[in-house]
Amino acid sequence: MSQWSQVQQLEIKFLEQVDQFYDDNFPMEIRHLLAQWIESQDWEAASNNEAMATILLQNLLIQVDEQLDRVSQEKNLLLIHNLKRIRKLLQGKYHGNPMHIAVIISNCLREERRILAAASMPVQGPLEKSLQNSVVSERQRNVEHKVSAIKNSAQMTDQDVKYLEDLQEEFDFRYKTIQSLEQSDKNSALIKQEMLALQAMLNTLDYKRKEVLSKIGRVIHEIDMLMSNMLTEELLDWKRRQQIACIGGPLHGGLDQLQNCFTLLAESLFQVRRQLEKLDELLTRLTYDGDPIPVQRPQLLEKVNFLLYNLFRNSFVVERQPCMPTHPQRPMVLKTLIQFTVKLRLLIKLPELNYQIRVKATIDNNRRFVLCGTHVKAMNMDESANGSLSVEFRHLQPKEMKSSAGSKGNEGPHMVTEELHSISFETQVCLYGLTINLETSSLPVVMISNVSQLPNAWASIIWYNLSTNDPQNLSFFNNPPAAALSQLLEVLSWQFSSYVGRGLNSEQLNMLAEKLMGQQVSYNDYQLSWAKFCKEHLPGKSFTFWVWLEAILDLIKKHILPLWIDGYIMGFVSKEKERILLKDKTPGTFLLRFSESNLGGITFTWVDQLENGDVTFHSVEPYNKGRLSALPFADILRDYKVIMADNVPENPLKYLYPDIPKDKAFGKHYSCQPNEVSKPSDGGVKGYVPSVFIPVSKILNDSTEPHSPSDLLPMSPSVYAVLREHLSPTVIETAVCCKLFHS
C-alpha cells in the first residue's frame, strides 16, 4: 500500500494535520494524482543536487501533462482548469530554483511519515497532551467569538456616530436658521417654541455624544482585555507549539486563525480611531459647556494608539525558524557560509501595507558573526499561498568575522555547540499617521563550521526548546536546567518519527530510559541532567548517550530505512531482555537490535537448541555503515550462512520474532531473489565467473558465538551449488575454514 493510501485512511484529526502543509507550494491535487510516482523518486537527494532537482522538476511537469491529457479525454472541466493552473504555477515558481520544490516535497513526505507514525502510537506523551489540551481549544473558540463580537460592536458604533452626525447637522441648520432672523422675529412665540425644541435637541446631542463615547470606551476596553489575556496566551501557545514542532513534535497550526484575530482587532481599532476623528470634527463645528468630547476623546485616542502599537508589535512573528535547506530536520543549526531560509509574517493583513514594509535581518550584537546575502526585503501578499503579509529570506549566510589578531576566532571543529545566537529582524510601519517600529527575533540558533558538529548542535537545540519557552535566553547553557525524563523520551521518539518515519514504542523507550538512568526504575518523575544526556560518556564506553543515539538515526536513515518503517527492527532491547524474549521460541527465531557497544551498528541474535535440549543464543558481530554500504541488510539476512562443526553451511535465521517467516517479513526488500542470481556461465566479465558476497560465520563446538560476519566470501550461490555437486561437505568446510581464519 502506498504511503498516500495509508494517509487517506487516517482519522480526521490526523488528516487535518496533513491538510496544513499542502498549499500552492505543492498542491494536494498533484500529491493525490501522482502518488506512486512521487513516492518512487528520491526528493531528499534532489534537494541537495541541482542537476537532479532540475530533471525531477521536468519529469514532474511531464507527469502533470500526462494527467492533463487523461482528464481532457474524460472532459472533466474543473480538473482540467485546476491542472492547467497548477502546471503554470509550478513552472513559474520553481523554474529558477528546482531544488526548492525538492525540499518542499521531501518535507511533505517526511511529515506524512511522522503523522502516520504518530497515528500508530497507542498513547500520547505528556508534551503532546499538553499541546492538545481541551482548555486551549476552548480558549481559541472564545477568542474568535470575542473578536467577532468586538468587530460587530465597532460597526454598530459607526451607525451611532453617523446618527450623531446627522442629528448635529439638523441642529446646526435649524440653529443657523434662527440666527439669521431679524431680532424682532426672534421674539415671536413660534421662535420661542423652536428655541425650546433646539434646547431639547442639544440635550439629545449631549446624551448621544456621551453614549457614543461610552460605547467607544467599552469597545476599547474589550480589545484591551482580550489582548492582555486570551490573545496574548494564544500567541504564546502558538510560539510554544512552534518550538515543539521544530524539535520533531506535532505540526503547529493556528497562525491563520491568529492572523484573522489580529487583523480584525486592528481594523476595529482603526475604525474606532476614525470615529474619534469624526467626533473631533463634530467638536470643531459645535461645542458647549459640559461637552464630553474635549474631556474624553484625548484619553480614548491615546489608549487606541497604545493598543495599536502593542498589537502591531506582537503581530510581527517568525513564521518559519531559520533552517538550512540541506538539513530540513535540523532547524536552528546554521553552518557558516551555507545559505539558510527564514520566513516572517505580520499577522495584521491590511492591503495598504503590501510592499510597504521593508524588513532588515541581522545577527547578534557581539560582531562575531555577520549575515551575507540579501538581508533587506519587502513584505508582500503575493509569495504566500494563503495571501498572508510575509517575507522569506532564502539567501542569507552567516559568516564569522576575523578577530583583531587576524585569526578566525573560534571557527573550526572546536566551535562551541552550546553557544547560542539570535537572528534579529526590524522594520517600521507607517500607516494613517502612525509610525511604529517593530522588532522580533528567531529562536536561539547554534552556529557550526563543520558538519561533524551537527549532532551536538542539534542536541543543544533539543534541550533548549524542551526545557524553556523563553525565546531569547542566550545564556541558557551557562547553567542548563534538568529535563523531565518522560518528556525527553517523548522528544526522542519524535526524532525517529520525523527523521526516519517511525517513532518508538513504550518498550523501546523503557530501554532508553534504563540506559540513561543506569537502572530499571520508574522514570515518570525522574529529572535528567544535560551532562548525562550529552556530555558524560556512557559507563564503560568512549561515547555519550546522544552520540550513540544519533549514530543509530544515521544508520537507519542511510541503510535500513524500509525495514525500520515496516516495524521489523526491534532495535532498542538489551542483551538480557533479548534472551528472555527468545528462549521459549522455535529454534531459528531471531530479532534485530542496535549494538550498545559499537556506534551505528546493528546485529541479529537467534535462538538454537543443542542436542541435549539446552537453549543457546548466537549474536553476530554488529554490521556498521561500511559493511552495509557493500551489502544490503535484507540480503544479508537472506544469504547469511553459519558453518557448525561437521556440517555444511546453512542459514540459521528462520523466523523473525515472534513467529514471522523471514521471507515474508523481508522478501520485498531483497535486491534479487536467489533463483534470479546468474549461473556461472551467465554474464560477467569475459573469462571470469560472476560472483556475489555471502556472509558466512563459523561456530566451533566450544563456542556459542560466531566469529565475524565480516567474512564475505566472493562466491555466487550458483557456484556454491556446483561445488556441492562435486565435493563432499567436509571438503567444502575445510576450504571455507581456511578462508575464515587465513584471509
TrEMBL record:
Compartment list: Cytoplasm; Nucleus
Gene Ontology MF: a single term: DNA binding
SH2 domain ranges (all copies): 564-666
SMART domains tied to this protein: STAT_int
Gene3D superfamilies: EF-hand, SH2 domain, STAT transcription factor, all-alpha domain, STAT transcription factor, DNA-binding domain, STAT transcription factor, N-terminal domain
UniProt keywords, alphabetically: Acetylation, Activator, ADP-ribosylation, Coiled coil, Cytoplasm, DNA-binding, Isopeptide bond, Methylation, Nucleus, Phosphoprotein, SH2 domain, Transcription, Transcription regulation, Ubl conjugation
SUPFAM superfamilies: p53-like transcription factors, SH2 domain, STAT, Transcription factor STAT-4 N-domain
Pfam family for this entry, one: STAT_alpha
Keyword Coiled coil listed: yes
Main location: cytoplasm
The organism's place on the tree of life at top rank: Eukaryota
The keyword Methyltransferase is assigned to this record: no
Record family assignment: Belongs to the transcription factor STAT family.
Name of the protein in question: Signal transducer and activator of transcription
